[in-house]
Amino acid sequence: MILYRCFAWNRRARPADADGALWFPRAYQGEGRHDNPDVYGCLYLADNPVSGVVEQLARFRGQRLVPGMLDRRRLPLAIAELELHHRESLVDLDDPAELVRRGLRPSEVATRRRDVTQPQALELYRSGKDAGLRWWSTYEALWANVTVFDRAARRLHVMDVRRLSVEDANVIEAAELLGVAA
Q1: Alpha helix locations (H) across the chain?
Q2: pLDDT of residue 181
């Protein structure tokens, strides 16, 4: 399964080192949808590169697209194309049967309330050996987002990493979707 990660990239870092494509940034986690950094680190991935860029640019809605929007912690944003082996090891929160099996409701999965989604993720993490969770994007329901737990790091392989620019087709599409003027 091919997934995409939009992240602050240090091109000199090895993939699993800080600011590399496979780095699980526990030190910066705690506010995210499925964060539980005291127990695990996670990567937030998407089934297409535009979805990952949308997540990074959403805070700039209504503004004009400028190169500085593509920097985090003085590092450029990049898109990594990653391969996750064993797709079946994801808990699919977009599957009604899976939600019923786990006693979850779609509204509880889709909420932006972290006091709801973080305990769900912790329970799912503790309930098995799954690589992570799959759920729909809150920006476009046809997009799938994936949270990969750090215990699945060996199942990830870097296919490609490239730095983003304001001329990148994925950035332009994400900006248009968000109403960020190019």
Answers
A1: 49-57, 96-102, 106-110, 114-126, 169-178
A2: 82
